[in-house]
Amino acid sequence: MCGIVGYIGSGQAAPILLEGLARLEYRGYDSAGLAVRDGEHDVEIVKAKGRLKVLSEMTDGGRALRGDCGIGHTRWATHGEPSTENAHPHCSDDRAVVAVHNGIIENYMELREKLIKNGYSFYSQTDTEVAAKLIDYYYKKYRGGPMEALARSMMRIRGSYALAVMFRDCPNEIFATRRDSPMIIGVADGASYLASDVPAILKHTRSVYYVDNLEIARLNRSSVRFCTVDQEAIEKRPVEITWDAESAEKGGFEHFMMKEIHEQPRAVQDTINSLVRGEQIDLSGAGLTDEALRAVRQVHVVACGSAYHAGVAMQYGIEDLARVPVRVDVASEFRYRRPILREGELVVIISQSGETADSLAALREAKAQGADTLAVVNVVGSTIAREADHVLYTCAGPEIAVATTKAYSAQLVVGYLLAIRLALARGTLEPEAGARMLAELRSLPEKIARILEDKERIQWFAAKFSNAKHAFFIGRGLDYAVGLEGSLKMKEISYIHSGAYAAGELKHGTISLIEERTLVVGVLTQDPLFEKMISNMVECKSRGAYLMGLTSYGNYNVEDTADFTVYIPRTDPHFTPSLAVIPLQLMGYYLSVSKGLDVDKPRNLAKSVTVE
Ligand code: M6R
Asked: Which residue's alpha carbon is nearest to atom 11 within ligand 1?
């Protein structure tokens, strides 16, 4: 996602802008640029494809650009290839208007046509140049000043934007506005700043205004004024940012969730390593010897939220590999439905925190009935870990973001290892096949890392759908389990209503909800179910759905049906949830970010639900 920084004060702008942009590098970019002006002098624009280092070298760290007022940008290409021409800032031909932009202007082609008819020509392929020239057009046509030109442009632009604009006639001001793309303003003694995100300016000020949708901000050296699109003044209070400028704990990521998403290769690897000795899966440390596993006649998996979804995946794995019946329950239901537990039945409680009230109560209920209990827990020494008969720890490390990612991934891995060991112990899986599966399991961290390298595609897609009201996730078998988790990720952090359905169930009711442009995410990683999934997706498409297909490399014919396809590396079909969930986590994350929401602390949610 693009990054924006702006500065007006008494210092030299360019070095400050470069430094701010560097703080936004984690957002990903392919080119960068600066526009700086020195009083009444014309604005100077410098742009470069590639890393910020290139721009910095071109400008001697910014020192070569004179001026105390400017805007800077790191661009991640959406319209037009990564190139110097397409890099921001963009400007009108006479440089009366100079702008940087983050977001996607959906009707830019239509606006471009309109401007061409009015004598404008275009040097880039970007929607941002269209925005700059549209503002210029209204500025010159109505002569109502910058605020009016911006307001008129905002009425015409469809899509998302955060815009920072300089007008030649206003040498001592920067203007900013946004819709569905983040923008913050900072004030300090004798200087004002703007940026896509707080870290860019935190070194200079902790006093920050959050610009709301369709507000316009007008910055000068000593103050910031806000108004509505109707040019009515707005009183806003700055928020005092209390967190550390370096935000060291986030490892340079904007949010803990993103950091934790990137920690998944490590979490998966550490969890595998903790339960494998030499070339053998060894659960005996938890008292789960082969003898004990052979005695298991039925498994009950009980958990809440994402942990429950990991349990649904575990059910498919254990039943398929070990041929032991598995029942999965939501803990809040299990604890009150007077479950029937018999000798030889194992109750598995999955919980990241190990403190979830319903899961703990379910554990106690199972123990009260004399069942053997196994906790799959992340927090060492937590109550569930202490009270269960056996414990398998996930090695995800501390998870801060409310939306779980790495802990869920680690839970999946424990499920695979348990299924394989159970199957080996019961003789339903040959040792050679088990060894092959373990080798494949070990390749998951690298495959997850590969998916993460391509996250910008998901980012682009999420930006396109950030205004969606509903979404549906469909899948069969393990893909249904993944859909459940993808749907929860979307709901909990982006506040978009979504539901996950077993694809075969659609025609029994849900399909009546599909209408023009409804987003339907079809997960199809299970080859034997592929054709059936395609049929279900076609059913949705013929009712107007916009289809995202999530499948493995090689299944390219999905593109005959899906409007947008995401591929994951091939793996053993039992392990595909570990890969398929990654793009879905990213989608939830980027939707939340593009809506300017609190990713790590979504409203109404707590990390650990310790009350009923
Ligand atoms: O700590 P637990 O794993 O027991 O928590 C269970 C759920 O509350 C948790 O997975 C929740 O659904 C997450 N916020 C989902 O991201």
From this structure: 305
Residue in 114, 367, 541, 607 annotated catalytic: 607
36 with 167: CB under 8 angstroms? no
Q: What pLDDT, on a 0 to 100 scale, did the predictor assign at position 244?
A: 61
Report the Cα 343 to chain-centroid distance in Å: 44
Is residue 526 in contact with ligand 1, taking CB distance under 6 Å?
Answer: no
Q: Residues with Cβ < 8 Å from 143, sequence gap 6 or more? A: none
CA-based nearest residue to 349, from 315, 324, 384, 317:
384
Q: What is the largest CA-CA distance in the chain?
A: 86
* Ligand 1 neighbour 31 (Cβ under 6 A): no
Residue 2 pLDDT: 77
Mention every residue, 6+ apart, whose C-beta is less than 8 A from residue 32: 21, 47, 48, 51, 52, 54, 55, 72, 73, 74, 75, 87
Match 């208007």 to its residue by tokens: 97
Q: Omega before 89 cis (within 30°)?
A: yes
Mean pLDDT, the chain, whole residue set: 93
Sequence-ordered list of residues with C-beta below 8 angstroms from that of 105, at least 6 positions apart, any chain: 111, 127, 128, 130, 131, 157, 158, 159, 160, 161
- The DSSP code sequence of 444-483 is HHHHHHHHHHTHHHHHHHHHHTTT-SEEEEEESTHHHHHH
Whole-angstrom distance, CA of residue 517 vs CA of residue 538: 14
Query: Please, which pLDDT band fits residue 248 given cuts at 50, 70 and 90?
Result: very low
Cα–Cα distance measured from residue 380 to residue 391, given in angstroms and rounded to the nearest whole number: 10
Rounded average pLDDT over 423-446: 97
464 is catalytic: no
Q: Do the Cβ atoms of 558 and 524 come closer than 8 Å?
A: yes
Residue whose CA is at the smallest distance from ligand 1 atom 4: 351
Of all protein residues, the one whose alpha carbon is nearest to atom 12 of ligand 1 is: 305
Distance 356 CA to ligand 1 centre (A): 8
Looking at residue 117, its amino acid is K
pLDDT at 314: 98
Q: Is 159 in the pocket of ligand 1 (CB under 6 A)?
A: no
Q: Whose CA is nearest to atom 7 of ligand 1?
A: 305
Counting from 1 in the atom list of ligand 1, the atom nearest the Cα of 489 is 16
**Using a 6 Å cutoff on CB, does residue 192 contact ligand 1?**
no
Residue nearest to atom 8 of ligand 1 (CA): 305
Distance 309 CA to ligand 1 centre (A): 10
List strands edge to edge, sheet with 90-91: 90-91, 97-102, 161-167, 174-179, 216-219, 224-227, 233-234
Looking at residue 595, its amino acid is K
Give the whole-angstrom CA distance, residue 411 versus residue 308: 10
Is 87 a residue whose pLDDT tops 80? yes
Whole-structure pTM over 0.70, yes or no?
no
- Decide: residue 604, CB within 10 A, 0-12 exposed, 13-18 middle, 19+ buried: exposed
- Annotated active-site residue 2? The verdict is yes
- CB atoms under 10 Å from CB of 494, counted, come to 27
184 bridge partner residues: 195, 210
353 CA: nearest ligand 1 atom: 1
Rounded CA-CA distance 169/161 in Å is: 23
